[in-house]
Amino acid sequence: MLKITDQEFRKLADYIKSNYGICLKEEKRSLVTGRLHNVLAQKNMNSFSEYFDYVISDKTGDAVVTLIDKITTNHTFFMREAAHFFYFRDKVLPYLLSTVRDKDLRIWSAGCSSGEEPYTLAMIIDEFFGKEKTWWDTKILATDISSKVLKDASEGIYSSEAIATLPSHWKLNYFKRLDSDRSVIVEKIKNEVIYRKFNLMERVFPFKKKFHVIFCRNVMIYFDEKEKSELVNKLYDMTDYGGYLFIGHSESLNREQTRYKYVMPSVYRKD
Fold first, then answer.
1. Which of 55, 135, 139, 192 is deepest in the core (most CB within 10 A)?
2. Which pLDDT score is estimated for 179?
3. How far are the Cα atoms of 41, 56, 64 from residue 45, in angstroms, in the given order?
4. Whole-structure pTM value
5. In sequence order, what are the beta bridge partners of 183?
């Protein structure tokens, strides 16, 4: 296996941080080397310098897509950090039901990975609104920088093990069996989620309307304080007044710096 030199690792890490906000620390060196080994082998490359030159010179964008897919960790599962979903169901949705006058519910799952989070939100919304849902626009925007996970998410296929902990009536109403070990999200729920590739490091967020709820969980753990602060400010600007931001349980916002109001651990609100 090819080794990556100190200079090559710094060069690659600097490129990824400046363009995608992801901090590749020294302890990630072996992970990066291992995940990119096959790519270099397939391209018959003899060094990571050669690979880096290939990435930045590739006009198609395919090379950088592969790089991001390889170095990002997309670990998630249904009902991850379940307290968030219960709070969303019991507190946030009743509030929005009584305050959103145009019946246009705007929710963003930022860093959606393989789709478990936005699909869970879609199922909760469907169950909460019931017959009233006909009168509401409840589509969820789900974004990620990884093309691979977005493709997997849009297909909506999950193993029996992946959905094992979901309520029985959800598995009955919102999933269709494909074979002995796989089920697919039903079209009614799949159509509620709009998947888009998006880099949270973009200087300007292109969304026309602000969101009532933003889930940006376990994303900022990869950012340093500067990038994290800039992202939170952009998220705040894209949050409607009275709207909520959910972050990961292992994450927190500096209450002296953020304009968000603290609600409970990893839940904030724009007042």
1. 192
2. 93
3. 6, 15, 16
4. 0.82
5. 158, 177
pLDDT for 129 beyond 90:
yes
Strands (E) located in 93-238 = 107-110, 140-144, 157-159, 175-177, 182-185, 193-197, 211-215
Q: State which fold the 6-71 domain adopts.
A: Chemotaxis Receptor Methyltransferase Cher; domain 1 (1.10.155)
- What phi and psi values does residue 20 have, to the nearest 5 degrees? -130, -5
Dist CA 132 CA 110 (whole Å): 27
Q: Where are the domains of the chain?
A: 6-71, 82-269
pLDDT score recorded for residue 77: 66
Candidate from 69-78, 161-170, 214-223 with smallest mean pLDDT: 69-78
CATH architecture of 82-269: 3-Layer(aba) Sandwich (3.40)
Location of structure tokens 């010179």:
57
CA distance 173 to 57: 48
The percent of residues in the chain predicted with pLDDT above 90, rounded, is 63
How far, rounded to the nearest angstrom, does the alpha carbon of residue 76 sit from its chain's CA centroid?
Answer: 10
